[in-house]
Amino acid sequence: MRSAYLLFVLLLAGCEERYPVYSSFDQNEFNLSCLDYAVYDKKDRELIQKHLNIPHNPQCGYRVELTKYHVGSCNNPVIKSLGSDFDGYVRLEIKKGFKCYYKVQSDYKSDVDGALERIVKKAKEELKNPK
């Protein structure tokens, strides 16, 4: 019985996506008292606002942008023949004008919502406690 339980746990652990979250942070003159959440999907915007907990102001100089990129439309024959270990990536950026002050990104394989959760949690952690 115990070995069946262990096998079940190992199978579940093998199904979990384990993609790292990458971020870069330019702290020079970076003080967030407001953000313009320029995220078009309402559900995504509300999730980001909830986790970052920084007031929304459309007039704010700092804006949040979200990119969800799906690699499925790649026509490169080498990539098609070898396959890919991910389906795309999700990236969150905080910009002022054209300068990016903060960026966090994670790849995903079939779970774009999981990747979004990972990057939002990382952003929340890093923006509250800048190094």
Would you count the extended β strands for me?
Answer: 5
Sheet with the most strands, sense and barrel status: 5 strands, mixed
Order of the strands making up the biggest sheet: 1-5-4-3-2
Tally of individual helices: 4
Query: Helix share of residues?
Result: 25-40%
- Return the string of H and E elements: HEEHEHEEH
Keywords:
131 residues, alpha+beta, 5 strands, single chain
Task: Provide a quick synopsis of the model.
Helices cover 37% and strands 27% of the residues. With 131 residues, the protein is α+β, with helices and mostly antiparallel strands.
Q: What features would you describe in this structure?
A:
This protein is an alpha+beta fold and 131 residues long. 37% of the residues lie in helices and 27% in strands. A 5-stranded mixed sheet has the order 1-5-4-3-2. A hairpin with a 2-residue loop joins strand 4 and strand 5. It is globular, with a radius of gyration of 18 Å.
